[in-house]
Amino acid sequence: MSTKHEKILQYIESLPVGDKISVRQIAKDMGVSEGTAYRAIKEAENRSLVSSIERVGTIRIEKKKKENIERLTFAEIVNIVDGQVLGGMNGLHKTLTKFVIGAMQLEDMMRYTEAGSLLIVGNRFKAHENALKEGAAVLITGGFDTTDENKRLADELELPIISSSYDTFTVATLINRAIYDQLIKKDILLIEDIYVPIEETAMLHNHQTIADFKLLNEKTTHGAFPVIGNHKKLVGMITVRDVIGREPTEPIDKVMTKHPISTSMKTSVASAGHRMIWEGIDLLPIVDEDGELQGVISRQDVLKALQHAQRQPHHGETIDDLVKKEIKLISEEDIMVEFIVTPQMTNQFGSISYGAFTTLLSEVGSLALKRKKRGDAVAENMTIYFIKPIQMETVLTIVPHILDMSRKFVKMDFDVFNEHTLVGKAMMMFQLLER
User: Fold this and answer.
1) What top-level class would CATH report for the domain 1-62?
2) Domain 192-309 in this protein, CATH class
3) What are the Cα distances from residue 33, in Å, to 37, 131, 284, 318?
4) Per-residue pLDDT tens for 5-27?
5) Domain CBS: where (predicted)?
6) Beta strand 204-205 pairing with 196-197
7) I want to staple 83 with a disulfide (CB 3.0 to 4.6 A). Which of 162, 201, 371, 381 is the partner?
8) Is the pTM of this model over 0.70?
């Protein structure tokens, strides 16, 4: 049986794309309090089912598939550029295919403007009109208005006209950044991309017995199962080890692990895999914010997904990618690395950012451990006890020293030089991952 929260989300998902919704309307339609309706709408926004716009309201938008995640809706554009909707409000749910900057003659501008695109332009009323007739939305920069005729045309064609106080360069930068962020998200595998849904999950109820566990174990050959109670709430996990030496009639809630480790749909696969290795578990239950079981993920699922992801082309680059690209091994025997500080890695003062510096040391440490045939490692903690301002375009030499190594942990010291001058020292603890 679904919870009120889940029922509201299902109701919102069933609404036609483009519909306006409100807390009061949802509360009335579903017979719940406005607080419950508000929380469900916020969750729907997190799931990209709706988009909330100041002075407009909340609009049902189409949930984008992973392969189309970089496409933005006009509703999202309004929020990105802090815009105001002047007309065509009923088209805010639509998705744009590209944007065109109107810094050219009108005839040239129209050659690039097509249906589904967004024309970014100043107070050029004829350009606004022509773009709408071509099937494109309009984003007016500089906080300018448009004519009443263009607003009526936008309403009629259901194509938004948005006004932003930002200049054209700032608007284009903000939209580019949003698309870039979406591309990075597209490359990050989440639990929701690979999990086994509850409909396909073998599970037990807390009122069942060890005999039921053994029957399910024989049928599926699985060694662990989630245990649920009322409303599909996760109440425990039970494994083969838990039932050894137990009587078949014994209730499973007496031997199961209560309050088990679980995770959510939005957790990254890499993070889930690290946690499973660290905690020594092979099956991880997936729950929603109310604790209702959504499905499971196994360690084998995680390994397969990560292996597959490594073979895929990647589009967006994170700071980790940028740092890895600049690392060059110059001495294999003593493990010595050369690194160039690029402008993307600097802070507002033009020096290497703390985040880029810590990522650099973490990557160099992992590289050193792989060269020592110790496999993969995860940084547990770091202490930077000396660092000078390191300017962009500086060439650094990083020398890691292994101070202590056990089966599970490694303590490492780092010396960072610029032309034989010491500019940084740090110590880091790594956890070695099982091979």
Assistant:
1) mainly alpha
2) alpha beta
3) 6, 44, 33, 42
4) 778 888 888 888 888 888 999 98
5) 256-318
6) unpaired
7) 162
8) no
